[in-house]
């Protein structure tokens, strides 16, 4: 009896990543680590949020003891907002970040970004969305001009690849083979 393997699914998620004000000078270094972890940086912008904008962004934390310190910290300087994409982006980004408390991250996840760049529970260097739903909300907040369309998966993704990507690749690679340039790049 022959076992049938399911066809691989093409599914890409997006998540929001923030490089917080105290480590914005390490932007290039952090981006390199993000890319090496298999993420694609889809969009990026540097901005400074007002305390009111920070309050709106972290509205789910309202009423907690650290909320005033959080909004003051996040509005204290520029930050870098990025939309990251890859398979299971939300969970992989959370894994790369490590625990939200940087001191605990150093003990339990010493190679995580928060262990490397964070200083304490509040100044943990980076932000990551907790779920796909929060990622969509946070991306819309930081990139209001973006139209978030659902990313095709399964048969829709295969249809898209067959209709648009494969013909373009085939034509380009065929032309490249016919030309046989000394330096194909």
From TrEMBL:
One CC-aspect GO term: cilium
Keywords assigned by UniProt, alphabetized: Kinase, Transferase
Keyword hit for Calcium: no
Gene Ontology biological-process entries: cilium movement; CTP biosynthetic process; GTP biosynthetic process; negative regulation of oxidative stress-induced intrinsic apoptotic signaling pathway; spermatid differentiation; UTP biosynthetic process
Gene3D superfamilies registered for this protein in UniProt: cAMP-dependent protein kinase regulatory subunit, dimerization-anchoring domain, Nucleoside diphosphate kinase-like domain
UniProt-recorded Gene Ontology molecular function terms: nucleoside diphosphate kinase activity
InterPro entries on file: Dpy-30_motif, NDK-like_dom, NDK-like_dom_sf, NDK_H5, Nucleoside_diP_kinase
Signal peptide: none
Domain Nucleoside diphosphate kinase-like: 12-150
CDD domains: DD_NDKH5-like (cd22970), NDPk5 (cd04418)
PANTHER family membership: NUCLEOSIDE DIPHOSPHATE KINASE, NUCLEOSIDE DIPHOSPHATE KINASE HOMOLOG 5
Family: Belongs to the NDK family.
Name listed for the protein in its UniProt record: NDK5 kinase
Source organism (scientific name): Eubucco bourcierii (red-headed barbet)
Upper lineage: Eukaryota, Metazoa, Chordata, Craniata, Vertebrata
Gene (name only): Nme5
